[in-house]
Structures are given as C-alpha cells and as structure tokens.
Amino acid sequence: MAEHEQAAPKALILTGFGINCEEEMAAAYRLAGGVPTIVHLNEVLHGRVSIHDFDILNFPGGFSFGDDLGSGVVLANKLRYRQTGTDGRTLLSDIREFVAAGKFVLGICNGFQVLVKLGLLPNLGGNFEPEVTLTHNASGRYEDRWVRLVVNPVANTPFLSGLTTLEVPVRHGEGRLVVPDAATRERIVAQGLNCLTYAGYDDLETGTYPLNPNGADLNCAGLTDPTGHIFGLMPHPEAYLAGCNHPDWGLKKRRGELKDEGEGLAIFKNIVTHLQHRAQEASASVTHA
Amino acid sequence: METNQHSILLTLQPGRHDGDGQRVAADAARHLGLTTGQVRSAALYAVRYPGLSAAQVADFAAACLQDPVLHTVAINELAAPTGFQSYILVAKGPGVTDDEGTSAQNALGDFLNEPIDTRTQHIFSKRLYWVEQALPAADLRRIAEELLGNKLINRFEVGAVADGLRDYTPRPGGGADARTETIVLSGLSDEQLLQLSKDNVYALNLPEMQAIRDHFDQASLREERVGLGLPADPTDCELEILAQTWSEHCKHKEFSAVIKYKNLETGAEEEIDGLFKTFIKGATSEVDRQLRANGNDWLIKVFSDNAGAVRINPESLFVWKVETHNSPSAIDPYGGAITGILGNNRDPLATGIGGARLLFNTNVLCFGNPDYDGPLLTGQLHPRRIFEGVRKGIEDGGNKSGVPTVNGAIIFDDRYRGKPLVYCGTGAVMPMQLAGKDSWEKVILPGDRIIMAGGRVGKDGIHGATFSSIELDEAAPATAVQIGSPITQKLAMDFLILATRRGLIRCSTDNGAGGLSSSIGELALIPGGAVVELEKVPLKYPGLKPWEIFLSESQERFTLAVEPAKLDELLALGREMEVELTDIGFFNAEGSLDVLFDGKPIAGLSLEFLHEGVPRKTLLAEYVKPTAQEPALPPVLDYNDVLLKLLGSLNICSRESVIRQYDHEVKGRTIVKPLMGATGQAPQDAAVVRFNFESWEGVAVSNGILPRMGDLDAYQMSAGSFDEAVRQIISVGGKLPNLTPGDNIFWSVNDNFCVPDSVYDPAINPDGKQKLAKLVQMCQALRDACAAYCIPLTSGKDSMKNDFKADGVKISVPPTVLYSMTAKVADVRQVVTSDFKQADDVIYLLGETYDELGGSEFYQLYNELGANVPKVDFAKAKALYTLVGEANDQQLIQSSHDLSDGGLAVTLAECTFGRDGLGAELDLSGLPAELSVNALLFSESHSRFVVSVAPEDVPAFESILKDRATRLGRVTADGQLRVRHQATELLSLNTTDLRAAWTNGPVNQTIGLEPATALHA
Lengths: 289, 1017
Description:
The complex is a heterodimer. Chain A is of the alpha/beta class. Chain A contains eight helices and eleven strands. In chain A, 57% of the residues are buried. The model of chain A has no long low-confidence stretch (mean pLDDT 93). In chain B, helix 13 (333-349) packs parallel to helix 14, helix 13 (333-349) packs parallel to helix 16 (486-501) and helix 23 packs parallel to helix 24.
C-alpha cells in the first residue's frame, strides 16, 4: 500500500433470518467510500468471520425471525445466549470488546430494535441491560411514510456530525420508544442520547401523528449510547441514497435542484470520513513519535 | 394438563398501551354492535418439549419472551385480571403454520445452547383476550370468528371467567397411515365415474374420467403394471396425480379447447383453434417477428417455465409473473393472500436455473363493497373481512419478505363479493449467466438428484389445484387453506440466491399448486422421467397418506435438480443457512413418473399419458350485443358537488390507508411510489423502480383493469384495459418499444383472465355461451393490442371458475382481465410524476375526448351504465405516445397524469394533490364544441393525459405535439381549481377541500386512516 493511502473503513453488514435491508446498506457504505461486506449471521456465530476484522458492525432493517416474539427479540436472544465456541463466549461478549476498542455499531429499524432489546442502547448503566423498549406504534399499524427529523445539537456521535435536519422514510409497525420512568427519561435527555427527534416542517419537535408516526416517548427516532459509538434509529437513511428517492423529488427537478445523491447518504459518509480522519491522525502521531 | 406441557402467559403491565385490545373493543362496537367494555390482550404459549422443567420454562420466558419494560409473565397460570368477566382464546388448528411458535423454539434452542428439534412444532402460540363485560358465549364467538380469526384455521374457546378458562393446544396428525388404495374404474358407469370425480375432488369431467378408465383398461398396460409390481388398476396416488395434472388450474383446458363461435349480430360463425394458440401465442409470435426484424432481440423466454424473461442489458434479465389466488382468498382472506404473494414470488425465483433477486410486488384486488349490508350466503365472508384479511396478507407477504409493494389497484363491484380477485405480481432480476451457464435455461440430465428444499409437508393445501378449478360452494374443504410463512421462504430465497451463484443447482422450480406431483411431474419432462422415494419427504407431523404427501401444497418449498457431484456442497450450504434439504429421488430417461413408498411402487404413469392424454374440449360461444342506452340525467348539475362526490366514491377515493401499510420502498430503489409530492398524497400512474445502485436504468410497472366496461363491450373493455396499462407507463416517461432499430427498450405484459364459469350447460349455466363469447372478444382485443403497440406477452394465467354458489344462489364475477405491464426506463432521473409542480406552468390535455360516458364513474353516481363505451384507436394512440416520448426526450413535460376513472375533472383535481396552495385555472373552450359539458368533464375516453409544461418550453412542446395537445390553462398559486367553458364557470373549488373529499373516502374510513384534518394539525 502506498504511504499516503488510507485503508477504507470496513463495514460488516449482518444478514440472514429475515434481515432484508442489507443490500441498500452495503450500497450506502460503498457510495460513501467504505468497504462493505455482507455476511450471514451464522458465519459469525460459527466463528468463520470475526467482527474484530471490521470497523463498523451493522444491523440492517428487516423482519429478523419474522418479528414473531416482538421485533428484534429472537435475534437479540441469539446474540446474548448462543455460544459461539466451547468457552461460553457469545457474540454479545465480542460486541462489548468491539465497542471497547473504539469501534462503531449501527442499527437501523429492525437493527435498532435488536440493539435496544440487547441493551446496547441507550446503555446508561454501562452493563448492556435493556433499559427502554420499542413496541407497537400508537396507531396499531405498520406504516411507510416519510418523516422529518431534527438532530439533537448536543448529540455526540460522529454518525450525525454536521447534520441538523434529515428527511427519511419510516417503515415499521413497532417503532414506539417506551422509556419506563421519568428518571431514565431525564438521564437520556441530559446526555443528549435522544439524538434524533421527529419534527414538523418548522423543525420543531412534535408528537402529532403522522409527523411523529409512532407516538414515541420524547418524540425520539434514534438513540446513541453515552460514547456515541453505538447508534440506532427507526427511519431508513439507507433508503435515501439517490435524490430521486424523495417523494417530492419532482419539484426539485422542476427547479433544477435535483441531486444524484440522497440526503441519507450523509450518515454513512460521516462515519467513513470520521474513521479515515482517525486513522490519519493515528498514523500521523505514529510518524511524529 | 400433561406433565410435560407448560403454559407461559405474557400480559401487559398496568398502564401500558394495549393497542390490540383497544382495536378489538372498537371493532366489536363498530362492526358487530357489541359492547365489550375494556378488552385486554395477552400472549399465551404452550410449551411441550419433553424433559423441560417448569423452572426452565420460567427462565426461558423471563429471558427470551418477556419484554421487561412491558410485560408481566405467569407460568402455568391463567388468572384473569380483576374486573374482567369473559375470555376469548384464539389458538391455531392442528397443523396450521405457527411461525410465532417456531420462533420461540429457535429462541429456546439459543437459550439452552442445545440442539433441540425446531422443525416440528413443540411450542404453540395463542392469543388470549379478557373482556370486561359478561357477554353470552354466542357474542364472544362472533367476536372470535369475525374479528380475531377464521374457523377454518383457528380454534376458539370462549366463556365466562367464573367458569374457568378452557385452554386448547393443537395436536396434529394421527396414526401413521402409509396405505395406498387401488381404485377400480373398469366397468363403472358414466354416473359412477362422475360421482367418483366429485367425491374425491378430482374436478374431472366425464370424457376425462372415461379417458383414464380406458387407459387403465388396456390389456398390455395392465400386464406391464403387474410386472412392475403395481396393481393393474390405478392407485389413489395415480388418480390424484392425473386429476392435478389435468386440472384446469394446471392444464388450461378451456384456453386450449376448440371454440365454436357464433356472432348472432352478424350471423358469422367460426371455429377457434384454442384461445391460447390463436390469440395469445399467435400475438406474441407476431410481435417477436416485428422485434427481430428491427434488430430488437430482448425477448428471451415466453410461456414456458414459471415466468417469462426479457433482457435488460447484456448482463441481466428481467423476470416476472402475475397470478391470481382467488378461491383461497374467498374462504381465508389472510391465508389466501399471503400464500398468493409468496407463491407468486417463487415463480420468478425458480425460473431457469433459479435464484433471481426479487425487485418488487404489485397487487390488484377486486372486492365487493365493504359497506355491503345485504344477506350473506352460507360460507360467504363479508366483503369488509375479505378486504381487511387480504390487505393484511399482502402486508405480511411483502413486508416480511423484504419485497416492496410498489403499486396496485383496488376495484369494487358487488359481483366480487362471492369470490374476490387477488392478483399478485412479482418482478425480479437475474444475471444472464449463473456460474457460466445461461440462467434462463432449465437443464436436467438423467441421474440428477431431486432435492426438496424449504418447509416441511403437512396436510395443508391438499386439493388446491383441483379445488380452484371448480366453483366455490359452502362445502369448501378446510385443507385447501394454507398459511404462508414469509420467514421460512426468506431463508430459502437467500439460500437459492447463493447456491445458484456457486453453480450448485442444475435448475429449480417451485412447489405451488399440486405440490411435488406438479413440480416433479413437469421437471420430469426435461430428462424424460423421474423416480420419487416418497417416504424420504420430511413431514410436519405423522399421519399423511402417500398420495397426500405427493399432492400437499404446503408452502415455501422448492424442488431442485442437482448434479450428484455437487450434492455434498449443496447440503452443507443448506445446513449453514438453516434450510432443510432432502434428497427424495432422481431423474431418469425412462419415460415415466414413478413413485415409491418404502421401496414399493405406488404410482407409475407414462409421461406421455400424464401430459398429453387429456381429451380436448369443444366449447360453444355465442355473441349477443347487449342492449344499452344513454341515460336521462338531471338537466342542470352542480358540477362542484358532482366532483366532490366522485372524489369520495368507492372506486376513485384515496387508498392511502392501504398503501401506507405496504412497504413500498424497501431495497431503496423505488423512484415513483404510489403517492408522491410534498403532501405524499398525489396518486401516480405507474411505479418506477431502479434495478441497482450502479446504474440509473429502471423499470416502470402499471396495471390496466376496467371490468365495468365489459358490461357494454368485452372487446373494448379488454382493449381499454391494455391501453390503460400502456398509457400509464407513457405518462411516467416510458417510450414505446421497437420505434427505432436496436433500441433495446424491453416491454412485457402479463395477461390474467378471471371469468365466471363459461362452459354452457342448459341446467346449471344457461348463459355460458354468452360468457364465453365475451372471453373470446377479450382475447381478440388482446391480440390486436399486442400487435398494435408491439408489446409481447411473456406470461399469463387464466382463472375460469370465479363463481360462489351456496343456498341455491350463484354470485359470479364479471368477466375480468388484468394487464400488468412493465417497460424499461433508460434513466430513472428523467421520469415524470403526476402532480403539478409550479405556478404558471401551462396545462394541456393530450389526446381526444369523445362522448364516451358509457360505464363511467360519473354515470355510476346515478346508478346508470349508459351505452357509449370508450373505444381505443390503437393507431392514433400509438402516434400520440410516440410524440409524448419525443417531448420527454427533451425533458419538456413537468407533470403528466393519465385520464381514467372520473375523466378530466378527477384527473385535474388529483394533479393538485401534491402540494398545498397550488391550483389551476382552465378553460375547456378549445375542446370540440359538439361535446356536452358532462362529456368534457367526465368522459372516460382512452389514450389521454393532462400534462404541465414550463412556460419557456411551450414553443418546443407545441411544435412536437401540434394538434394532439389542447391548451387548457395554467397552474396557479391560489389553491383553487377553476374550470370554465365558454362563458360558464363549471368548477370553482378549494383544492384542500377536493383532497379532503378524496382522503376521507370510504376506503380510508374502512381501513381506518386518521381523518385528513388531523393530518394537517
């Protein structure tokens, strides 16, 4: 490898068992300059692929195990309980080490549900125990509709750096965040872990249906952990990779403002760029040492 | 309760939102007029793993099933919450797919870290509802049967809490039953043959039964059979295989029949040598000739295999198929629709070698009025239940498979209240080459193994193929109903994609109607024979007879032909991806289909007799011109009022509540969705989906269906439906095929005929000849349309018995045809959406308006049919579509919406739905002076568009369209729709009110979308 070349960040994208947004997630990383690899979950569970060979671990959207016991539940169980070797290790133990090594985890929609059920988010207590949940929308229905999100200015995750608002589709039946008590709510807000909020066209937070499509507590669409390394959201930024994915792209075209690139790509570019900078800094500090 | 059975009850903690319970209470009040008080829902599981202790079950429940934030868990305890006096338990019947139970089994395996049997059912999921009021058992049962389940697939227990809760856990199967019976046909009278056919649901007619009897009466054959260890007389398995293979569903006997057609209007008589051969195959051969003569060779595969295929570019094929699933949807709407979707998905998946990647679903549904308040026949479900069940089936079938439902249509007509029509379409992309082989070819060599992949076999769906070939009556067999498992299929789909790319599969096919009998029976034709060892087929539970195993339509299964040398690698991949694969036999070139059970032959049928032995039918058709006249309407109409009523009418109003419950953009490739614009409420003409993220190539998808026009003129109904599908694609910016040499723009149409029983019988179907004449005319129009536009049919289906018969009454669907159309779009960034974009853009009407209100939605408001059916002029339409394509090449059109139900007025209104504040100001004086105002506003003449053009593009646009465009006015910024004619103001309405009338229409009311006012709060 040439001396100045930075290795492109490597994204591991899990699939199998009903996950179904792996292709667009891989496309997002590819378009953002990363190197995505789609891997069946069993290849990881059976030890043929190690998450530690990657920089970002991704849980895409879909219906893992049909969401039969509640969205994300069976997959979360598998990560928590299924032993990946004879030493009693589970994938959750690997994920702990992965995060401790300063790497990143992203979950979208069903993937976000998995992270929440697994206790990776919000992880206020630091011990990966479930603290909040995602359950049936207040409307009682699955819905596909576009929403407007505002980024919490105090959120500290590189995934969202430089972003203030975002329009993206939600496509879920179980996206209502339930925070069980006021104390938990306050801790989430105090640390800015509620990084994305449903908003109206005035960019003000709202609980009004369908602007808040599911009735989530805190009108919250996405969470990070306190380190900002684990990030999950209900809406689908990977479904807005092209300008013409937007429902009103026709008007942008009429005005000559239509871009090839969609706004959802920003999140993936952010993390890829962040990792590249970090690698640059690391190699620079090594050079100067 | 047995010692090895435990129950787990999950209830919501106090104060948690119980959406399911609230919905049941609300629906009971709204649809059944029952006051329940509060309803609380709970999840109940019966765990029947041998050796699992109550403590282990409790640990499992707490760790894996309970959401600590939401649930309270109780083990082996079913106590009601205080204040609740009644209960309803909803369990599944024996052998019914229970995905939730299976998922719990998976979780248990992970939790215990032990290999436990997850392929057969040991955990059973149920729902429990506590009802506050003390309702009589009959009312509780009504809630259960009409709101919570279907008695064909569910078991209900209801009662008073005080009497103690009766639990129910299914116990499928029975004793092993490996018997094969011999059935003697020799010497049976005609009556006895027919009775046998009816008793066994063979759905074979007398000549067919006679042909089978005569076949087995041949002395040489009898001798040969005995030599092979078979009885001389046919076995039950053989008769079942023949009945399935010869079923209308599988052999399309009526589309192959000789038709004696008499036109009573002209006196002309002709003999048609099969509808399929004459009109469908004939038209496509002609189109292919035209295409090839012009250097367009993208038509790769037609009318063979599971789906047709056209070439997108040198690397990839577009494979797609549309089918119906009507009969199952009539008796179990949810199960019928979900198996329809999943079954139709398997067609492109298992075309050629197999392993196409699914790109989209499209669904067209025909129902009775959901507000129907007439009597229901025995076994007939209310149209609202059918609607809601089918909608849910499509939601789960598409969403859980990760396939976007990109568009569709819902048509209401009370003649669909007996048997609904559920059309399921799926498009997919396949590489031209898979592991170095032509992907679309099906090759099998003698010696290749037969592998069954996917789900296990149960009694579900036995007789589906024959059952759908007869009219429905109150005695519909419960086993004809199945529930699909999208998750099982998703696993099999992921597996197939990988296995085909690694070259592990010679070819694949799906197991749909007729199960293994159909899939192996058809694949056997390729090498010239097959041997099946039936005892190897894995079962969901014991107790199936051999023929039942062979004929079962248990879902989510593929049959694969595998080279012996690749078998080990394939089986290893199956284990890795948790897809069950079973070697159940091999192919040979012996000329017969041989079935063994435990080494003993139970069927041995020559492929020639099996596939060619069915006698050809001769059918009678007679055309009588329907009497029709134009109605006398009130001389003065308030057109504002008429337009608002039309927008709120059943066939025009918004379908948003349905559309939003389908995921229409998973895969991230959907460019034109069903509803667009800033409001997300502007209805579009065709969906547009890009193929991948590396290029901007895509496909436009549309559907044309106009059943009511068929009451006036079946030919024009069919021609108009075809034109509707074409013009929707033209509207979004598609270009007609074959206009220039080697333009490589593929188009492909699927035809789907759904007609009432059209076989004349003086006693039971006296108007059969007239119905068949309509079908003939529909086919004639199809041929003419294909040839005119140069669009090939690549696949299609006919469903010939869409009648529901009970209590001496027959409800028949109107003769219906759906044309599902796809076309390549070179650059999805260049396509056009329907909504007006900007004030001062100039609005044109393209095409010609005639006095054609016959069959219109406008007349329907007055319960009139009229006479002047819209007619298609293919030559004029093609010329216009070519000009529109030229204008789009120069990007001159900012919005385009085709005219259909409700005519110009409705189209104009819909064009304003995309954004608040836009309106339009129009003057119709430029349209032909001889037309009445009614015709100007509401005529449903075909081949027309409303387009808007930026002011600076007007000269260029007008120089292309010339006299085919009539300038009507401009887009305004005042939020008003104003239409004048000469000195008269016809319409003056606020566009927000128009949109509210449309949004608050009966469909959104039925499915329960929040009212439009709340949307803008």
